[in-house]
Amino acid sequence: MTEKENRVVQGRMVTPKSLAERIEDGSVMDAEAIVDADRECPECGGPVVSVGYMPSVMEFVTGYKCQDCDWKATDRE
Ligand SMILES: [Zn+2]
Question: Where are the domains of the chain?
């Protein structure tokens, strides 16, 4: 993992896995690199980052997290 993959979210440095775990509110098996999502936070209008992760072997989820506030979401139905 390189430093480039880390991002600052709500003033704290996060790795792809730690960000995924905050979105999931639990442990995840694996996470891809954090990327800028092409959307604004619906709560505060701040920048949103996204991360693809695997909460379990059978599931792949794309999670979204605002960099400025507590807002988060996933692409689950
Ligand atoms: Zn926000």
Answer: 3-74
